[in-house]
Amino acid sequence: MTIQTSDRETAARLARRPWLTTPIRPELEVSFEFFPPGSSAANNQLDSCIAELAPLEPSFVSVTYGAGGTTQERTVTTIESLAASTDLEVAGHLTCVGSTAEEVDTVVDSYVAAGVRRIVALRGDAPPGEGDGTVDGGYHTAADLVTGLRRRPDGDQFDISVAAYPEIHPKAASATADLENLERKFEAGADRAITQFFFDTDVFVRWFETVRMAGISAPIVAGIMPVTNFTKLVGFAERCGTDIPSWMYDLFGGLDDSPEIRRMVAATVAAEQCRLLVEHGVRHFHFYTMNQPELSVAVCRMLGIKAAEAGAESLAG
């Protein structure tokens, strides 16, 4: 039997990969993203999610914030609760669309009052029918928002993350324009970039190399979205400009009503994605949990990241 070149390359890659017998935790960081719950049941679900994920000792956890402040009250409340009841490093999302600089500062002041100095600074999407969402006295771009944060009297005390788009932001004029926008965010004072979720690892690797060749040396965190519901994911990806490779339709087709099988497939896909990225120098993964912890825990386990033996109870609050 003749072994094709691609088969030999695959075998070689698999042979050198760090399986569970060789944990790679010392080289990796993970973080988790939650959305603010809108009901008592959802709040209980988030509490369970935190209890499952906190023992993995994430670098930080973030809480999303709707464009134009649509979840502002719930987001601030969730952040206050996490900061008060856990030892986790908490990051609050912050968008500037539809808000004046003063209104943005009010949200930041709420975060600071809760003891939170980590911020994920985003432009955000304007609500339908409101143009680009820019208002008088507001920030026009995420780079402007970062500049505004750094200009505060306490601006040098913030840890600021921004967004990056391996498949180009849907509204960017070109890949070059999108890269230049990312450069402006770092020039304004961002500490790291967290990417939009993606599934085509080759696309990410090419983009990552381009970013480094452009002279951007700041940390790039890969955003990972484990598949909790494939049908819903497809619709979400279309709105975000994320491509769903054809092989994913083959893998997940017909599994929305088979949750156990879907979870096994989803965990394997996400773990494989992370392992490939590790081979190309990625060391930090940000999991979009959808407030469902099981898949993120499973993927971390396959990466050799396990719950800490000591201190897990205090971390979970």
| Overall strand count | 8
Helix/strand order = HEHEHEHEHEHEHEHHHEHH
The CATH architecture category equals: Alpha-Beta Barrel
Count of alpha/pi helices: 12
Give your account of this protein's structure:
The protein has about 325 residues and is α/β, with parallel strands linked by helices. Helix 4 links the parallel strand 3 and strand 4 (about 120). It has 12 helices and 8 strands. Helix 5 (about 140-150) packs parallel to helix 6 (about 175-190) and helix 10 packs across helix 11. Residues about 310-315 have low confidence and may be disordered. The longest helix has 21 residues, at about 260-280. An 8-stranded parallel barrel has the order 1-2-3-4-5-6-7-8, surrounded by 5 helices. The protein has helices at about 5-15, 40-55, 70-85, 100-115, 140-150, 175-190, 200-215, 230-240, 245-250, 260-280, 295-300, 310-315, and strands at about 30-35, 60-65, 90-95, 120, 160-165, 190-195, 220-225, 285-290. The radius of gyration is 20 Å and the shape is globular. The protein has one domain (about 25-315): Alpha-Beta Barrel (TIM Barrel).
